[in-house]
């Protein structure tokens, strides 16, 4: 239980005190009314004795009484009604609330830190009112009057006669059968005569003379002269007199006797109501002098009103309240001085010392003597007789018999009642030891007689006596109290006495720290007959659980919920709200969502009823934002509750700021911001650049690629450096982009904010008039200092500010979100002035969707159904058959008046608003930046960076480019060439210049060379037009090559820019506002099959200098799917054909091409035609085709292969000198009917781009493999240089495709780069096989690494030899036995340096075949020659071969040894087998 102001001993002693009645004359009452007090109220603050009192017990032992208090009340003759008592108890509890600013008691239990009020003053007020309102009963005498004060004023005409009348009236009330109320302790009641003397009016001498006459008549101990009202009316109000009545009367206004004066029950024909009129036969003279102020009890209400909330009860209650307010507001004791206070206090002490206590002591002695005498005679005879006839054992009775026995009544003179009377007297004067003995004796007698009501009362007071005994001689018998409570409840059906016993026992147990037992008693006392009592006791039980040594937090919370529920049913809304709020501390955040919903719902409902609208909105908000597990119908009911409450709040403060709405959720981190217009969509053959949009998903890898492309082009524009203030262009910002800097937007270009809404409920939501909240600061960035700075504007205050001179706000009329759906809304702002924009949040009207009014068979349109749904959280469904929900789960049930008052608004709004209830509010966009993790401090703490995506800087106008691709293909063959057009449009009001495009795959496209003439702007169908520049040729001369020379600089190879950055050839290099231009663009399919993603970044600038943006970019991603076409493999070898006379083309090569059709797709490709083979090199050129086919162009069907052989010669020195250095020679060998001029656009463009790509790959490969390669010697370098060819082959082809019953002609080109003699080259990129993982070995080299020597194959290509001799030679061996045949040996040095050669003609047979050959002929003459050949020199050696017989003979080849002339190191021998020329 909670802490109380009084201790348990003080509480029990003040509860059971001697009762003293008061009867006053009219003059006496008028004297006391000057102070706005009755006589009983006048003396009430002084009824506690300040000194100890001594009295003697029956054994003549002195007994000390400490801190004694007496209870002085006016006489009333009608018992109080229970309905009125309940109403007054309710008023007492309502009037007692927690003090504002009271520091709560913080209790820490486990993980809980609870703020709980340590005291409960409403409980103490209820308890005090309850005990004071208890009517006296016949089975006990604790509330019976012991004495009666007869009060007469000195202003009465005959005070002694008036005393006589009052005495007769008291006697009639006590002894007449017409009065059953009040109760008197003994027949001989003490009468104490008090003469009131009003000092301000009466004569003091007359008062003294009357008092002297009273002393002679009643004795000095039976009367008293009380002087008061000493304060004269003339005295000012400056003197501050204390008000001792406030603490009693303010707390006990409901028990004031003053209420009776203005609270007269309506007339009734009942006997009780007529007694006050007839005054029991007293004559009129008597009636005239006796005030009619004791006819009804202060709790007595209308006799006809039997129900708590009945209509007959309203008027008396209003009268009571009015009187209470009047009494509380008027000042009391205005005519009294401090001396009067002391006189009243002295009067009470005199009355107690000389009158009351001696009377009590005398009565105790008389009762004791009677009991002793009766115990010795009649009691012993009665007991002996009963034992004789009934035996020693008392027979047990059934429950029904006990119930009948509980109504047993003893006569007033019964010895059992005399014992109880003596026990009560001893208890009232704190003689607890004697009281216990008497109670214990009476208890036995009552139990023997089966008088259960009397026995329960004796048990109750016996237990209290034991507890109050000083010295704790006996242990507190708690089982006495439990038995008494059970008897009161079950047998006697007297819940008032059971409640009194429970309150006493609980306080005693609490003082002994037995909180669990106390809580059990309190919980048992709860019932359905009184919600207020149950609420009070449940709350105290909850405090018992929390005050235990190991606090039971969850039990505390559960019982606080139960107490709050019962408080709500008792119309104690403030206390209900407080209980639920305290319990919420335990349930909050523990995952008990249904319990939280129930608590929040009740808190919201009670707060709304109490007009605590902010608390109501907050509570309903928590219901909606939590992860609700309620059904859809229940969630809809909660939502309607919230909307109604929220609307009520907004009506109270229409001019206030918009509060935050809880629904729907906004995923702030997922907010995306897009700067710029929505791109124009593709139209027919026009395909718009993809650029950036909110429909694209963010990819970190792709973003990094775009950043690298932009850095490359910026580096080129700034001549190799990146500016320090360079900021990567970001058109779309999200949680993964770099948002540390303020983004830059352009005026007249919209800013789109994509907000992600999530509906956590199962019912749909409707957002209307949805727009962004913003704040804008004007700034002119062209000026260095802002002189005319204007104030910032915002649409927070003026929500209808949709269009202004600065910002245009787009409004979405309706935005519906289904249940549990996540949906995005894109909201736009159009800035029209430069400055700083801050997006604050969103504003919208929240309402329910009309179609969602019926869900799960529940029609929530009528207000009663909504009330039923909302009140029953645990069972929200109402059965379709009309069955009511189970009452056991209906914890939200409240009075019908409350329901109608609360839900009237719901049913009313549904008929007025077309889409149900709608409220306007806002939600802020608060984005948390990334966590900082750079410095040590940031790593050891939790710090977050800034996120500026919602704070763009609006800068001045910039050009805006749009790009369209016309007839852009999506699928190509490998190497296929296609001509398309690109349209550039400037859609802004500013001219643009410096247009460039940067791409990581520059060999995919070309805008043509600078010297190429622009072709017509509208491309025709592909089957009638070629992308190449062609010339009709003569069929007879197609086998010979047609040559031409070009410079790579004409195709942008040596322009100085990186190959990735390409200038777009705009006319005059400027694109005016609104202008557009179409440029041809040739595409070539990549050599690798598959899907290729090719990124274009278009870079452009403004013609005017800009403060914030130096450039803008436009992105485009092309997706090309390539399929296989042809595979070309090429090899080159030295031609052995040497002619000593024809030295012009003696240095030639044989080029072998192996062309295969590897197309396996079902794209409809019928066949490929090789229409031309071209070469491009600085040193070599194709001369002619050696094996021309009959059909001229080679046809290749599916999986067919063709082999072609060409002769290549070195370019003549005359050609080299006639051209400037660095020019390339193009040689075209036409295999069809028309020549494709390979030295022009687009063939040459793609050739040079392909060469650059190969060179860059080779450079990258060397960079990766450079450190680990072995050293190359000078000899090897020279030999390798001699074998280098550097001849590029271009194979041009056409493919015939059938598509949609049309035959299309596709064309393309493949590139093969021959690097050296004997090494095969392929048009397809070679895929490097992944090396197997091997164990890492550490080897220490013992010897330094030697330079590598040239291989045998490399050396074999240094010299080319040829033997010239006749194929047939006639000779007559009969005439001459030896035949001499002349043979010419031709030697050619293929190098550019001198070579030493040794020719050895000696025979060295190594096989039987060679032995046979050497046996048929031999060389004559010199057999070994030593020669030295200069670079490119041809040398002939005449030889003679001698044959001994006729036949077919293969000449034995001579052996050759060669070394470089300037090298001292002997090289490996090189042997060549020569054949007849």
The average pLDDT is 78
Poorly predicted residue ranges: 253-293, 298-325, 377-400, 852-915, 1013-1024, 1465-1477
Radius of gyration: 60 Å
What overall form do the CA principal axes indicate?
Answer: rod-shaped
| Structural class label | alpha+beta
Number of helices: 36
Keywords:
1477 residues; seven-stranded mixed sheet; eleven-stranded antiparallel sheet; single chain; rod-shaped; alpha+beta
Account of the protein in words:
The protein is α+β, with helices and mostly antiparallel strands and 1477 residues long. Helices cover 31% and strands 24% of the residues. The protein is built from 36 helices and 55 strands. Strands 12, 26, 28, 30, 32, 35, 40, 42, 44, 46 and 47 form an 11-stranded antiparallel β-sheet that branches. Strands 14, 16, 17, 19, 21, 24 and 25 form a 7-stranded mixed β-sheet that branches. Strands 10, 11, 13, 15, 18 and 20 form a 6-stranded antiparallel β-sheet that branches. A hairpin with a 2-residue loop joins β5 and β6. α18 (452-468) packs antiparallel against α19 and α23 packs antiparallel against α24 (573-587). The longest helix is centred in the N-terminal third of the chain and has 39 residues, at 338-376.
Architecture blueprint of SSEs:
Layout: H1 8-15, E1 19-24, H2 26-33, H3 39-43, E2 53-56, E3 62-65, E4 71-74, H4 82-95, E5 105-109, E6 112-116, H5 121-132, E7 145-153, H6 159-175, E8 190-198, H7 204-218, E9 223-228, H8 246-249, H9 258-262, H10 271-278, H11 284-289, H12 314-329, H13 338-376, H14 378-390, H15 399-405, H16 415-428, H17 432-448, H18 452-468, H19 478-491, H20 495-511, H21 515-524, H22 531-546, H23 553-569, H24 573-587, H25 593-609, H26 613-625, H27 632-652, E10 665-666, E11 672-675, E12 686-688, H28 700-717, E13 732-733, E14 744-746, E15 751-758, E16 765-778, E17 793-794, E18 807-809, E19 812-817, E20 822-831, E21 835-848, E22 854-855, E23 858-859, H29 863-871, H30 896-912, E24 918-924, H31 936-940, E25 953-955, E26 961-966, E27 971-973, E28 976-986, E29 992-998, E30 1005-1006, E31 1030-1032, E32 1042-1046, E33 1061-1063, E34 1070-1071, E35 1076-1084, E36 1090-1102, E37 1112-1123, E38 1126-1134, E39 1148-1157, E40 1165-1177, E41 1180-1185, E42 1194-1196, E43 1201-1210, H32 1213-1218, E44 1224-1230, E45 1234-1236, H33 1243-1265, H34 1274-1283, E46 1284-1299, ...
Parallel strand pairs: 1-4, 1-7, 7-8, 8-9, 14-25, 27-37
Antiparallel strand pairs: 2-3, 5-6, 10-15, 11-13, 11-15, 12-26, 15-20, 16-17, 16-19, 16-21, 18-20, 21-24, 21-25, 22-23, 26-28, 28-35, 28-47, 29-33, 29-34, 29-36, 30-35, 31-45, 32-44, 36-37, 38-39, 38-48, 39-43, 40-42, 40-44, 40-46, 41-43, 46-47, 49-50, 50-54, 51-53, 51-55, 52-54
Helix pairs in contact: 4-5, 13-14, 13-16, 16-17, 17-18, 18-19, 19-20, 20-21, 21-22, 22-23, 23-24, 24-25, 25-26, 26-27, 27-29, 29-30
């Amino acid at each position: 239980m909670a802490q109380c102001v009084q201790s348990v001993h003080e509480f029990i002693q003040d509860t059971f005190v001697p009762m003293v009645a008061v009867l006053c004359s009219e003059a006496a009452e008028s004297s006391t009314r000057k102070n706005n007090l009755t006589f009983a109220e006048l003396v009430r603050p002084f009824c506690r004795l300040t000194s100890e009192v001594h009295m003697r017990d029956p054994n003549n032992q002195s007994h000390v009484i400490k801190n004694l208090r007496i209870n002085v009340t006016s006489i009333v003759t009608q018992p109080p009604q229970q309905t009125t008592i309940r109403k007054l108890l309710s008023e007492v509890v309502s009037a007692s609330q927690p003090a504002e600013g009271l520091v709560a008691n913080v209790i820490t239990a486990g993980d809980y830190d609870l703020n709980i009020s340590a005291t409960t003053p409403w409980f103490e007020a209820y308890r005090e009112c309850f005990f004071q309102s208890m009517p006296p009963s016949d089975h006990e005498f604790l509330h019976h009057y012991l004495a009666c004060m007869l009060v007469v004023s000195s202003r009465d005409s005959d005070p002694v006669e008036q005393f006589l009348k009052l005495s007769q009236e008291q006697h009639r009330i006590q002894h007449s059968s017409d009065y059953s109320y009040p109760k008197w302790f003994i027949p001989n009641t003490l009468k104490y005569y008090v003469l009131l003397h009003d000092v301000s009016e009466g004569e003091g001498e007359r008062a003294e003379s009357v008092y002297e006459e009273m002393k002679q008549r009643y004795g000095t101990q039976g009367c008293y002269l009380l002087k008061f009202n000493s304060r004269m009316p003339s005295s000012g109000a400056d003197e501050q007199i204390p008000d001792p009545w406030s603490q009693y009367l303010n707390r006990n206004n409901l028990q004031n006797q003053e209420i009776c004066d203005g609270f007269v029950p309506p007339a009734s024909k009942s006997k009780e109501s007529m007694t006050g009129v007839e005054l029991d036969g007293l004559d009129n003279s008597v009636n005239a002098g006796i005030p009619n102020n004791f006819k009804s009890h202060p709790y007595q209400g209308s006799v006809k009103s039997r129900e708590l909330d009945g209509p007959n009860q309203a008027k008396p209650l209003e009268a009571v309240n009015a009187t209470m307010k009047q009494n509380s507001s008027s000042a009391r004791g205005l005519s009294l001085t401090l001396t009067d206070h002391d006189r009243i206090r002295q009067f009470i002490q005199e009355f107690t010392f000389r009158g009351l206590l001696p009377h009590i002591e005398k009565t105790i002695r008389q009762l004791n003597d009677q009991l002793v005498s009766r115990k010795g005679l009649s009691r012993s005879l009665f007991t002996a007789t009963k034992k004789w006839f009934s035996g020693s054992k008392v027979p047990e009775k059934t429950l029904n018999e006990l119930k009948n026995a509980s109504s047993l009544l003893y006569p007033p003179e019964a010895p059992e009642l005399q014992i109880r009377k003596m026990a009560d007297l001893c208890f009232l004067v704190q003689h607890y030891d004697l009281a216990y003995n008497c109670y214990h004796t009476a208890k036995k007698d009552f139990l023997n007689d089966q008088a259960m009501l009397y026995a329960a009362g004796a048990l109750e007071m016996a237990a209290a006596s034991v507890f109050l005994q000083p010295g704790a001689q006996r242990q507190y018998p708690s089982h006495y109290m439990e038995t008494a409570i059970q008897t009161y409840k079950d047998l006697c059906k007297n819940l008032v006495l059971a409640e009194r016993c429970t309150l006493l026992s609980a306080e005693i147990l609490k003082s002994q720290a037995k909180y669990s037992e106390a809580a059990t008693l309190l919980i048992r006392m709860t019932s359905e007959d009184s919600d207020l009592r149950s609420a009070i006791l449940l709350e105290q039980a909850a405090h018992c659980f929390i005050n235990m040594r190991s606090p039971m937090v969850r039990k505390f919370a559960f019982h606080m919920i139960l107490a709050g529920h019962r408080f709500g049913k008792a119309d104690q809304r403030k206390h209900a709200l407080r209980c639920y709020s305290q319990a919420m501390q335990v349930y909050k955040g523990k995952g008990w969502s249904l319990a939280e919903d129930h608590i929040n719902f009740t808190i919201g409902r009670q707060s709304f009823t109490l007009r605590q609208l902010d608390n109501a909105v907050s509570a309903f908000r928590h219901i909606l934002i939590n992860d609700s597990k309620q059904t859809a119908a229940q969630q809809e009911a909660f939502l309607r509750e919230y909307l109604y409450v929220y609307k009520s709040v907004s009506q109270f403060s229409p001019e206030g700021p918009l509060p935050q709405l809880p629904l729907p959720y906004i995923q702030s981190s997922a907010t995306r911001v897009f700067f710029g217009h929505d791109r124009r969509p593709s139209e027919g053959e026009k395909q718009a650049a993809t650029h950036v949009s909110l429909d694209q998903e963010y990819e970190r890898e792709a973003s990094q690629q775009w950043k690298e492309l932009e850095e490359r082009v910026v580096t080129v524009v700034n001549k190799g450096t990146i500016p320090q203030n360079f900021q990567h262009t970001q058109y779309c910002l999200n949680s993964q982009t770099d948002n540390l800097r303020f983004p830059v937007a352009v005026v007249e270009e919209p800013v789109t904010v994509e907000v992600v809404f999530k509906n956590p409920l199962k019912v749909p939501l409707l957002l209307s008039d949805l727009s962004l909240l913003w704040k804008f600061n004007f700034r002119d960035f062209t000026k260095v200092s802002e002189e005319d700075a204007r104030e910032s504007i915002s649409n927070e205050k003026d929500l209808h500010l949709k269009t202004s001179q600065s910002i245009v706000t787009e409004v979405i009329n309706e935005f519906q979100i289904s249940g549990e759906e996540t949906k995005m809304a894109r909201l736009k702002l159009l800035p029209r002035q430069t400055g700083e924009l801050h997006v604050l949040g969103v504003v919208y009207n929240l309402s329910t969707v009309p179609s969602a009014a019926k869900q799960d068979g529940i029609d929530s349109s009528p207000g009663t159904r909504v009330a039923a749904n909302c009140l029953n959280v645990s069972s929200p469904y109402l059965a379709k058959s009309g069955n009511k929900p189970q009452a056991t789960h209906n914890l939200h049930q409240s009075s019908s008046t409350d329901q109608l008052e609360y839900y009237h608004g719901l049913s009313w709004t549904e008929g007025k608003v077309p889409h149900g209830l709608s409220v306007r509010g806002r939600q802020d966009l608060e984005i948390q930046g990334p966590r900082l993790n750079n410095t040590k401090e940031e790593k050891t703490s939790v710090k977050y960076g800034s996120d500026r995506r919602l704070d763009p800087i609006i800068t001045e106008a910039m050009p805006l480019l749009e790009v369209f691709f016309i007839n852009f293909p999506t699928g190509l063959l490998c190497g296929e060439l296609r001509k398309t057009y690109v349209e550039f449009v400037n859609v802004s009001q500013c001219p643009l210049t410096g247009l460039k495009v940067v791409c990581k795959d520059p060999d995919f496209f070309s805008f043509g060379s600078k010297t190429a003439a622009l072709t017509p702007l509208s491309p025709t169908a592909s089957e009638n037009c070629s992308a190449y520049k062609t010339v009709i040729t003569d069929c007879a001369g197609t086998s010979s090559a047609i040559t031409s020379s070009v410079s790579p600089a004409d195709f942008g190879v040596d322009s100085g820019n990186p190959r990735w950055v390409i200038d777009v050839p705009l006319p005059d290099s400027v694109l005016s506002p609104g202008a557009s231009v179409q440029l041809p663009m040739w595409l070539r399919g990549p050599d690798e099959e598959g899907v290729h993603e090719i990124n274009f970044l278009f870079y452009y600038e403004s013609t005017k200098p800009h403060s914030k943006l130096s450039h803008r970019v436009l992105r485009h991603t092309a997706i090309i799917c390539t399929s296989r076409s042809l595979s070309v493999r090429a090899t080159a070898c030295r031609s052995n054909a040497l002619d000593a006379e024809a030295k012009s083309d003696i240095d030639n090569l044989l080029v072998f091409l192996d062309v295969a059709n590897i197309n396996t797709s079902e794209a409809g490709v019928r066949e490929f035609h090789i229409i031309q083979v071209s070469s491009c090199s600085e040193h070599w050129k194709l001369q002619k085709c050696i094996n021309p086919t009959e059909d001229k162009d080679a046809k290749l069907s599916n999986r067919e292969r063709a082999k072609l052989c060409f002769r290549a010669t070195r370019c003549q020195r005359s050609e080299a000198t006639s051209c400037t250095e660095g020019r390339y020679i193009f040689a075209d060998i036409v295999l069809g009917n028309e020549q494709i001029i390979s030295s022009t656009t687009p063939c040459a463009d793609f050739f040079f781009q392909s060469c650059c790509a190969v060179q860059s790959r080779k450079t990258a490969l060397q960079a990766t493999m450079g450190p680990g390669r072995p050293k190359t010697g000078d000899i090897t370098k020279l030999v390798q240089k001699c074998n280098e060819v550097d001849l590029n082959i271009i194979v041009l082809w056409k493919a015939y495709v059938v598509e949609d019953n049309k035959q299309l002609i596709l064309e393309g080109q493949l590139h093969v780069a021959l690097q050296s003699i004997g090494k095969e080259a392929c048009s397809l990129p070679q895929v490097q096989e992944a090396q197997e993982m091997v164990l890492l070995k550490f080897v220490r080299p013992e010897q330094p690494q030697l330079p590598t020597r040239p291989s045998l194959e490399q050396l074999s290509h240094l010299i080319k030899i040829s033997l010239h001799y006749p194929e047939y030679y006639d000779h007559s061996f009969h005439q001459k036995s030896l035949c001499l045949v002349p043979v010419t040996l031709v030697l050619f040095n293929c190098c550019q340096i001198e070579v030493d050669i040794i020719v050895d003609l000696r025979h060295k047979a190594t096989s039987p075949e060679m032995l046979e050959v050497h046996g048929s002929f031999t060389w004559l003459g010199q057999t070994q020659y030593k020669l030295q050949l200069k670079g490119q020199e041809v040398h002939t050696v005449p030889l003679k071969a001698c044959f001994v017989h006729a036949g077919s003979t293969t000449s034995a080849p001579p052996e050759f040894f060669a070394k470089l002339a300037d090298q001292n190191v002997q090289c490996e021998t090189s042997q060549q087998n020569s054949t007849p020329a």
